[in-house]
Amino acid sequence: MKKNIMIKQLLLVVFSAMMLSFFGCQGKAGTGEQSSQRGEPVIIYENPIYDEASQTFTLTVSSDSTAGANVTYSLLEGDSVIMSNSDGRFSGIPPFDEGYNVTLEAQWDDTTLVRTVHIMDFVVPRKAVEKMTNEQLQNLINSCDQSIKRGTNEHLTQGVKLTIRDSKSVPPRMLPEVVTLIENGVWKSIEVINIEYDDNNLITAITLKPVGEHVDIDEDDEDLDY
Question: What is the pTM of this model?
Fold first, then answer.
């Protein structure tokens, strides 16, 4: 009788061990499947918003495919961390023409992933100005106006696109170089052919041509017998 009871108890222990092992394997398989189905984290962001009163920007970022992770967002200037948080809301950001890096660190129990994106548009918006005419700009350039030479004229955007027509020499790429050519007598003057503007009447592109261009003739060319 006692022997039968012992056999039953032994069988019960073995059965219990088998069930624990089975469900334990099922649990591990489920964890692996969840890990394999995890997507790649992506940083989602809106355009920075400028606050004129504080002269700073606010930025809101979020992320995709980070369910179940502890998430940390950081705003960086180059490699230097300026501020970090877990909700992706940044404020009091100074203007910076070169833009900022934003990193996302998503940490799960079994892994940590880091993603980085570079965000521009931290430039203070320019106010609207009265539209400058072709003749007005032409007179400024031909008089070698210092605001044109230094690129500080309020009617010009940064990096104005410059197109030169009917020039026999290597054309300048920037407007200050045009002023230098006039100062050095390489060009007697210029004629503004066309101007392009943005929504605030700021000049974004200029097409002009030189007047009275002086081109040095190579001495070897003078000796050629045509």
Answer: 0.55
Query: In this predicted structure, what is the pLDDT of residue 178?
Result: 97
Give the tens place of pLDDT for each residue, 99-141. Answer: 999 999 999 999 999 999 999 999 988 889 999 999 999 999 9
Identify the structural domains of the chain with CATH numbers, from first to last.
42-119 (2.60.40.10), 134-211 (no CATH)
Full DSSP string of the chain: -HHHHHHHHHHHHHHHHHHHHHHHHHHHHHHHHHHHTPPPPEEEEPPPEEETTTTEEEEEEEEES-TTSEEEEEEEETTEEEEEESS-EEEEEPP-TT-EEEEEEEE-SS-EEEEEEEE---SPPPPP-PPPPHHHHHHHHHTT-HHHHTT--TTEEEEEEEEE-S-SSPPPSSHHHHHHHHHTTSSSEEEEEEEEE-TTS-EEEEEEEEES---PPPHHHHT---
Q: 197-208 pLDDT, tens per residue?
A: 999 999 999 999
